[in-house]
Amino acid sequence: MIILVEDIQRLQTSLNQIRENSATQIRLLEEQLNQKQEVISRLEARLDAQRDYDEMKRELVNLKASAASTLTTNTDSPSSSINGVDAKDMKDNNTITSGNSKRPGTKKPTQPHNIKIYNTIL
C-alpha cells in the first residue's frame, strides 16, 4: 500500500510538471502568435501603402498622358494658331498689355498686326 501511495505522489508530481510545461509552451506559442500577427499587420499596412502608391502612380501616368494628348491636340488644331501666332502668345501679350496699362507713365504697347487681324475676324 505504501508503494501505491508513493506511485500516486510521483504520478501527481509528474502530472503537475507536465501541466506547468504545457502552460509554459502554450504561453510561448501565444506570444509567438501575437508577434507573427503584428508582423502580418505591418506587412498588410505596407501592402496597402504600396497599392496606394501604385494607384497614384497609375493616375499620374494617366494625367501625364492626358496632358500630353491635350498639348498635342492644341498644337495640331488650326484654331490654336492664327497667322503663325499661338493662342498662348496672344494671351501672354494681352496679359503684358493689360499689366503695363495700369502703371502710370508707361506707354501701352501696340498690338502685333496678326492680333489686329484676329480681332477684326471676330
Automatic annotation (TrEMBL):
Signal peptide: none annotated. Residues 67-83, 93-113 have a biased composition (Polar residues). One of its GO terms (cellular component) is nucleus. Keywords: Coiled coil, DNA-binding, Homeobox. Residues 67-113 are annotated as: Disordered. Residues 19-66 form a coiled coil. GO terms for molecular function: DNA-binding transcription factor activity, RNA polymerase II-specific; RNA polymerase II transcription regulatory region sequence-specific DNA binding. The keyword Coiled coil applies. It comes from the Eukaryota. This is Homeobox protein cut-like 1. It comes from Orchesella cincta (Springtail).
